[in-house]
Write a structure and sequence with these properties.
Oligomer: single chain
Order of helices and strands: EHEHEHHEHEHEEEHEHEHEHEHH
Distance between the termini: 10 Å
Shape: globular
Helix content: 25-40%
CATH topology of the largest domain: Rossmann fold
Radius of gyration: 22 Å
Strand order of the largest sheet: 3-2-1-4-5-6-7
Protein backbone atom coordinates (compact mmCIF):
# COMPACT_ATOMS: atom_id res chain seq x y z
CA UNK A 1 0.00 0.00 0.00
CA UNK A 2 1.28 3.43 -0.97
CA UNK A 3 2.25 5.69 1.93
CA UNK A 4 2.65 9.45 2.18
CA UNK A 5 6.16 10.32 3.42
CA UNK A 6 7.64 13.69 4.39
CA UNK A 7 11.45 13.82 4.48
CA UNK A 8 13.32 16.76 6.04
CA UNK A 9 17.06 17.09 5.52
CA UNK A 10 19.75 19.75 5.58
CA UNK A 11 21.78 17.71 3.07
CA UNK A 12 20.45 16.53 -0.28
CA UNK A 13 21.41 16.27 -3.94
CA UNK A 14 23.78 17.51 -5.32
CA UNK A 15 25.75 17.83 -2.06
CA UNK A 16 28.57 15.29 -1.84
CA UNK A 17 28.33 13.95 1.74
CA UNK A 18 27.18 10.78 3.55
CA UNK A 19 24.05 12.47 4.91
CA UNK A 20 23.16 13.77 1.46
CA UNK A 21 23.49 10.25 0.09
CA UNK A 22 21.31 8.96 2.94
CA UNK A 23 18.47 11.37 2.20
CA UNK A 24 18.75 11.31 -1.59
CA UNK A 25 18.99 7.54 -2.04
CA UNK A 26 16.15 6.94 0.43
CA UNK A 27 13.82 9.42 -1.27
CA UNK A 28 14.52 7.93 -4.71
CA UNK A 29 13.97 4.36 -3.55
CA UNK A 30 10.75 5.11 -1.65
CA UNK A 31 9.33 6.58 -4.87
CA UNK A 32 10.53 3.50 -6.80
CA UNK A 33 8.65 1.38 -4.30
CA UNK A 34 5.42 3.28 -5.02
CA UNK A 35 5.25 5.80 -2.17
CA UNK A 36 4.47 9.52 -2.35
CA UNK A 37 7.49 11.45 -1.10
CA UNK A 38 7.92 15.14 -0.35
CA UNK A 39 11.42 16.41 0.48
CA UNK A 40 12.00 19.63 2.41
CA UNK A 41 15.57 20.83 1.92
CA UNK A 42 17.62 23.87 0.98
CA UNK A 43 17.53 25.30 -2.54
CA UNK A 44 20.53 24.11 -4.54
CA UNK A 45 21.38 24.24 -8.20
CA UNK A 46 19.61 21.38 -9.97
CA UNK A 47 17.65 20.09 -6.96
CA UNK A 48 14.20 20.98 -8.31
CA UNK A 49 14.87 19.30 -11.66
CA UNK A 50 16.36 16.28 -9.89
CA UNK A 51 13.24 15.87 -7.77
CA UNK A 52 10.99 16.26 -10.78
CA UNK A 53 12.97 13.64 -12.71
CA UNK A 54 12.63 11.14 -9.84
CA UNK A 55 8.98 11.73 -8.95
CA UNK A 56 9.78 13.55 -5.69
CA UNK A 57 7.83 16.59 -4.53
CA UNK A 58 10.23 19.38 -3.52
CA UNK A 59 9.65 22.08 -0.89
CA UNK A 60 12.12 24.90 -0.25
CA UNK A 61 13.41 24.88 3.33
CA UNK A 62 15.07 28.25 2.84
CA UNK A 63 18.76 29.07 2.86
CA UNK A 64 21.11 29.37 5.79
CA UNK A 65 21.80 33.10 5.80
CA UNK A 66 23.77 33.68 9.00
CA UNK A 67 27.40 34.49 8.12
CA UNK A 68 29.92 31.72 8.67
CA UNK A 69 33.03 32.89 10.57
CA UNK A 70 36.14 32.10 8.55
CA UNK A 71 39.71 31.36 9.54
CA UNK A 72 41.92 34.15 8.18
CA UNK A 73 45.14 36.06 8.74
CA UNK A 74 48.39 34.74 10.18
CA UNK A 75 50.12 34.41 13.53
CA UNK A 76 47.99 35.50 16.47
CA UNK A 77 45.22 36.71 14.15
CA UNK A 78 45.00 33.24 12.60
CA UNK A 79 44.91 31.65 16.06
CA UNK A 80 42.15 34.03 17.14
CA UNK A 81 39.94 33.18 14.19
CA UNK A 82 40.53 29.46 14.64
CA UNK A 83 39.29 29.78 18.22
CA UNK A 84 36.28 31.87 17.13
CA UNK A 85 35.25 29.36 14.46
CA UNK A 86 35.81 26.31 16.65
CA UNK A 87 33.93 27.61 19.67
CA UNK A 88 31.10 29.16 17.63
CA UNK A 89 30.31 25.63 16.49
CA UNK A 90 31.01 23.95 19.82
CA UNK A 91 29.24 26.34 22.20
CA UNK A 92 26.36 27.57 20.06
CA UNK A 93 26.01 25.13 17.10
CA UNK A 94 26.46 28.27 15.02
CA UNK A 95 25.44 28.70 12.23
CA UNK A 96 23.45 25.42 12.01
CA UNK A 97 21.25 26.46 14.95
CA UNK A 98 19.40 28.55 12.35
CA UNK A 99 17.83 25.31 11.13
CA UNK A 100 15.45 25.29 14.11
CA UNK A 101 13.30 28.26 12.94
CA UNK A 102 13.66 27.25 9.28
CA UNK A 103 12.34 23.73 9.92
CA UNK A 104 9.60 24.98 12.24
CA UNK A 105 8.36 27.40 9.57
CA UNK A 106 8.55 24.76 6.81
CA UNK A 107 6.41 22.32 8.82
CA UNK A 108 3.76 24.87 9.78
CA UNK A 109 1.31 23.96 7.01
CA UNK A 110 2.20 20.28 6.60
CA UNK A 111 -0.26 17.57 7.70
CA UNK A 112 -1.65 14.16 6.94
CA UNK A 113 1.51 12.14 6.38
CA UNK A 114 1.99 8.53 7.35
CA UNK A 115 5.53 9.33 8.47
CA UNK A 116 7.97 12.19 8.79
CA UNK A 117 11.63 11.17 8.41
CA UNK A 118 14.19 13.76 9.51
CA UNK A 119 17.84 13.25 8.59
CA UNK A 120 20.68 14.40 10.85
CA UNK A 121 23.49 15.48 10.99
CA UNK A 122 23.38 18.36 11.74
CA UNK A 123 21.20 17.74 14.77
CA UNK A 124 19.37 21.09 14.66
CA UNK A 125 17.26 19.39 11.95
CA UNK A 126 15.80 17.13 14.67
CA UNK A 127 15.60 20.02 17.12
CA UNK A 128 13.59 22.00 14.56
CA UNK A 129 11.16 19.12 14.02
CA UNK A 130 10.78 18.74 17.79
CA UNK A 131 9.83 22.42 18.08
CA UNK A 132 6.96 21.96 15.61
CA UNK A 133 6.01 18.32 16.07
CA UNK A 134 2.46 17.06 16.52
CA UNK A 135 0.66 13.96 15.26
CA UNK A 136 -1.29 16.29 12.98
CA UNK A 137 1.82 16.43 10.76
CA UNK A 138 2.31 12.65 10.61
CA UNK A 139 1.35 9.45 12.38
CA UNK A 140 5.02 8.65 13.06
CA UNK A 141 8.24 10.61 13.33
CA UNK A 142 11.43 8.72 12.50
CA UNK A 143 14.52 10.69 13.55
CA UNK A 144 17.39 9.26 11.50
CA UNK A 145 20.78 9.83 13.12
CA UNK A 146 24.30 9.57 11.74
CA UNK A 147 27.11 9.92 14.25
CA UNK A 148 25.86 10.46 17.83
CA UNK A 149 25.76 14.02 19.18
CA UNK A 150 26.17 14.07 22.95
CA UNK A 151 27.71 10.59 22.87
CA UNK A 152 30.18 11.21 20.05
CA UNK A 153 33.70 9.84 20.47
CA UNK A 154 35.78 11.39 17.72
CA UNK A 155 35.82 15.13 18.30
CA UNK A 156 38.48 16.79 20.43
CA UNK A 157 35.82 18.40 22.64
CA UNK A 158 32.53 17.06 23.94
CA UNK A 159 29.39 19.16 23.34
CA UNK A 160 28.48 21.41 26.29
CA UNK A 161 26.14 19.86 28.86
CA UNK A 162 23.20 22.13 27.99
CA UNK A 163 22.74 20.52 24.57
CA UNK A 164 21.55 17.37 26.33
CA UNK A 165 18.20 19.12 26.81
CA UNK A 166 17.87 19.55 23.03
CA UNK A 167 18.81 15.92 22.49
CA UNK A 168 16.43 14.56 25.11
CA UNK A 169 13.57 16.69 23.80
CA UNK A 170 13.72 15.30 20.29
CA UNK A 171 14.35 11.76 21.54
CA UNK A 172 11.24 11.90 23.73
CA UNK A 173 9.03 13.18 20.91
CA UNK A 174 10.24 10.94 18.09
CA UNK A 175 8.42 7.65 17.53
CA UNK A 176 11.66 5.94 16.50
CA UNK A 177 15.34 6.77 16.36
CA UNK A 178 17.29 5.08 13.58
CA UNK A 179 21.07 4.60 13.65
CA UNK A 180 23.42 3.00 11.08
CA UNK A 181 25.05 0.32 13.26
CA UNK A 182 24.37 -1.68 16.42
CA UNK A 183 27.46 -0.12 18.00
CA UNK A 184 25.95 3.36 17.53
CA UNK A 185 23.26 2.69 20.15
CA UNK A 186 25.58 3.27 23.08
CA UNK A 187 26.05 6.88 21.89
CA UNK A 188 22.49 7.69 23.03
CA UNK A 189 20.92 8.04 26.46
CA UNK A 190 19.82 4.62 27.83
CA UNK A 191 16.29 5.85 28.48
CA UNK A 192 15.72 6.02 24.70
CA UNK A 193 17.32 2.73 23.66
CA UNK A 194 13.93 1.06 23.30
CA UNK A 195 13.10 3.49 20.49
CA UNK A 196 16.30 2.82 18.52
CA UNK A 197 16.24 0.73 15.35
CA UNK A 198 19.35 -0.12 13.35
CA UNK A 199 19.06 0.72 9.64
CA UNK A 200 22.37 1.00 7.77
CA UNK A 201 23.31 3.41 5.03
CA UNK A 202 22.01 2.27 1.66
CA UNK A 203 22.95 2.58 -1.99
CA UNK A 204 21.78 1.17 -5.28
CA UNK A 205 24.68 -1.12 -6.13
CA UNK A 206 23.78 -1.20 -9.82
CA UNK A 207 24.41 2.55 -10.14
CA UNK A 208 28.13 2.10 -9.44
CA UNK A 209 30.30 1.87 -12.55
CA UNK A 210 33.41 -0.26 -11.95
CA UNK A 211 36.65 -0.40 -13.92
CA UNK A 212 36.88 -3.64 -15.90
CA UNK A 213 40.14 -3.24 -17.80
CA UNK A 214 43.61 -4.55 -17.11
CA UNK A 215 45.58 -3.46 -14.05
CA UNK A 216 46.60 0.13 -14.92
CA UNK A 217 50.06 -0.05 -13.30
CA UNK A 218 52.67 -2.60 -12.28
CA UNK A 219 52.99 -0.72 -8.98
CA UNK A 220 50.82 -1.50 -5.96
CA UNK A 221 48.13 1.21 -6.03
CA UNK A 222 45.96 1.78 -2.97
CA UNK A 223 43.73 4.59 -1.79
CA UNK A 224 41.66 6.32 0.85
CA UNK A 225 38.67 8.62 0.53
CA UNK A 226 37.44 10.61 3.54
CA UNK A 227 38.36 13.14 6.19
CA UNK A 228 41.04 12.90 8.88
CA UNK A 229 40.86 13.66 12.62
CA UNK A 230 44.14 14.19 14.53
CA UNK A 231 44.69 11.61 17.24
CA UNK A 232 41.71 9.58 16.06
CA UNK A 233 41.23 9.01 12.34
CA UNK A 234 44.87 10.00 12.06
CA UNK A 235 47.11 8.98 9.10
CA UNK A 236 50.42 10.29 10.48
CA UNK A 237 51.86 6.99 11.77
CA UNK A 238 50.98 5.15 8.58
CA UNK A 239 52.35 7.92 6.35
CA UNK A 240 55.60 8.03 8.35
CA UNK A 241 55.89 4.27 7.82
CA UNK A 242 55.38 4.61 4.07
CA UNK A 243 58.01 7.35 3.87
CA UNK A 244 60.49 5.15 5.78
CA UNK A 245 60.46 2.46 3.07
CA UNK A 246 63.29 2.30 0.55
CA UNK A 247 62.88 2.59 -3.20
CA UNK A 248 62.46 -1.17 -3.64
CA UNK A 249 58.87 -0.73 -2.52
CA UNK A 250 57.02 0.45 -5.62
CA UNK A 251 53.60 1.81 -4.72
CA UNK A 252 51.34 4.82 -4.88
CA UNK A 253 48.93 5.85 -2.13
CA UNK A 254 46.15 8.02 -3.56
CA UNK A 255 44.35 10.21 -1.01
CA UNK A 256 41.03 12.01 -1.59
CA UNK A 257 40.16 14.20 1.38
CA UNK A 258 38.52 17.42 2.55
CA UNK A 259 41.23 17.74 5.23
CA UNK A 260 44.46 17.85 3.17
CA UNK A 261 46.29 19.80 5.90
CA UNK A 262 46.90 16.52 7.75
CA UNK A 263 48.63 14.98 4.71
CA UNK A 264 50.50 17.79 2.97
CA UNK A 265 53.63 17.66 5.15
CA UNK A 266 54.25 14.03 4.12
CA UNK A 267 54.05 14.58 0.36
CA UNK A 268 57.54 15.97 -0.24
CA UNK A 269 59.40 13.10 1.44
CA UNK A 270 57.33 10.45 -0.31
CA UNK A 271 59.12 10.71 -3.68
CA UNK A 272 55.77 10.70 -5.44
CA UNK A 273 54.51 7.63 -3.62
CA UNK A 274 51.93 9.55 -1.53
CA UNK A 275 49.65 11.55 -3.80
CA UNK A 276 47.00 14.05 -2.74
CA UNK A 277 44.24 13.92 -5.34
CA UNK A 278 41.49 16.39 -6.21
CA UNK A 279 38.03 15.84 -4.77
CA UNK A 280 35.60 13.77 -6.83
CA UNK A 281 31.89 13.06 -6.66
CA UNK A 282 31.03 9.67 -5.18
CA UNK A 283 30.51 7.79 -8.45
CA UNK A 284 33.75 9.11 -9.96
CA UNK A 285 35.67 8.25 -6.78
CA UNK A 286 34.22 4.74 -6.77
CA UNK A 287 35.33 4.25 -10.36
CA UNK A 288 38.89 5.39 -9.57
CA UNK A 289 39.06 3.16 -6.50
CA UNK A 290 37.85 0.18 -8.50
CA UNK A 291 41.20 0.34 -10.35
CA UNK A 292 43.20 -0.06 -7.13
CA UNK A 293 44.77 -3.12 -5.54
CA UNK A 294 43.43 -2.42 -2.04
CA UNK A 295 41.81 0.32 0.04
CA UNK A 296 42.69 1.84 3.40
CA UNK A 297 40.36 2.48 6.33
CA UNK A 298 41.55 4.76 9.14
CA UNK A 299 39.52 3.67 12.14
CA UNK A 300 37.52 5.94 14.43
CA UNK A 301 38.11 6.04 18.16
CA UNK A 302 35.63 3.88 20.07
CA UNK A 303 32.81 1.98 18.39
CA UNK A 304 29.82 4.37 18.37
CA UNK A 305 30.80 5.93 15.04
CA UNK A 306 31.39 3.81 11.92
CA UNK A 307 32.81 5.32 8.70
CA UNK A 308 30.20 5.14 5.93
CA UNK A 309 33.01 4.70 3.40
CA UNK A 310 33.18 1.04 4.46
CA UNK A 311 29.92 0.48 2.59
CA UNK A 312 31.51 1.82 -0.59
CA UNK A 313 34.51 -0.40 0.05
CA UNK A 314 32.17 -3.39 0.38
CA UNK A 315 30.51 -2.56 -2.95
CA UNK A 316 33.94 -2.36 -4.59
CA UNK A 317 34.89 -5.82 -3.22
CA UNK A 318 38.50 -4.76 -2.69
CA UNK A 319 40.83 -5.90 0.13
CA UNK A 320 40.74 -3.45 3.05
CA UNK A 321 43.72 -2.51 5.19
CA UNK A 322 42.31 -1.12 8.46
CA UNK A 323 44.65 1.20 10.38
CA UNK A 324 44.11 2.28 14.00
CA UNK A 325 46.05 5.24 15.35
CA UNK A 326 48.44 4.18 18.13
CA UNK A 327 48.73 0.61 16.84
CA UNK A 328 51.73 0.44 14.52
CA UNK A 329 51.67 -2.92 12.68
CA UNK A 330 54.56 -2.75 10.25
CA UNK A 331 54.55 -6.47 9.39
CA UNK A 332 50.83 -6.34 8.67
CA UNK A 333 51.21 -3.25 6.50
CA UNK A 334 54.13 -4.79 4.60
CA UNK A 335 51.99 -7.84 3.79
CA UNK A 336 49.53 -5.61 1.95
CA UNK A 337 52.34 -3.84 0.09
CA UNK A 338 53.56 -7.24 -1.10
CA UNK A 339 50.09 -8.28 -2.31
CA UNK A 340 49.22 -10.53 0.65
CA UNK A 341 45.68 -9.65 1.74
CA UNK A 342 44.95 -12.53 4.11
CA UNK A 343 44.37 -10.07 6.98
CA UNK A 344 41.95 -7.94 5.03
CA UNK A 345 39.10 -6.41 7.03
CA UNK A 346 35.87 -8.35 6.44
CA UNK A 347 32.56 -6.50 5.99
CA UNK A 348 29.75 -8.85 6.92
CA UNK A 349 26.61 -9.22 4.79
CA UNK A 350 27.17 -6.43 2.23
CA UNK A 351 23.66 -6.95 0.82
CA UNK A 352 22.25 -5.26 3.93
CA UNK A 353 23.47 -1.99 2.39
CA UNK A 354 21.31 -2.32 -0.70
CA UNK A 355 18.92 0.64 -0.76
CA UNK A 356 16.01 -1.66 -1.58
CA UNK A 357 16.42 -3.39 1.79
CA UNK A 358 17.11 -0.14 3.64
CA UNK A 359 13.96 1.57 2.34
CA UNK A 360 11.87 -1.51 3.18
CA UNK A 361 13.13 -1.42 6.76
CA UNK A 362 12.08 2.20 7.09
CA UNK A 363 8.63 1.31 5.77
CA UNK A 364 8.32 -1.49 8.33
CA UNK A 365 8.44 1.24 10.99
CA UNK A 366 5.78 3.25 9.17
CA UNK A 367 3.43 0.29 9.33
Amino acid sequence: MSKKILLVSNAFYPENSPRSFRATELAKELVRQGHNVKVITHPREGVEQFCQDHGITYKNLGSLTWPVPKVKGSGLVLLFWRIVVRFSILLFEYPMIQLIPLVKKALKDESGYDALISIAVPYPIHWGVASAWSDKIAKNWIADCGDPYMGQENDTFKPPFYFKYFEKKFCRKATYLTVPTQASIKGYYPEFHSKIKVIPQGFRFEDVKLYSGEKPSDKIIFGYGGMFIPGRRDPSEFLNFLNSLDDSHRFEFHIYTTTPQFVESFIGASKGRIQLKGLLDRNSLMYEMSKMDFLVNFENAGTAQTPSKLIDYAILKKPILSVRFGEIKKDHWLEFLSGNYQQSMVIENPDQYRIEQVASRFMELVG
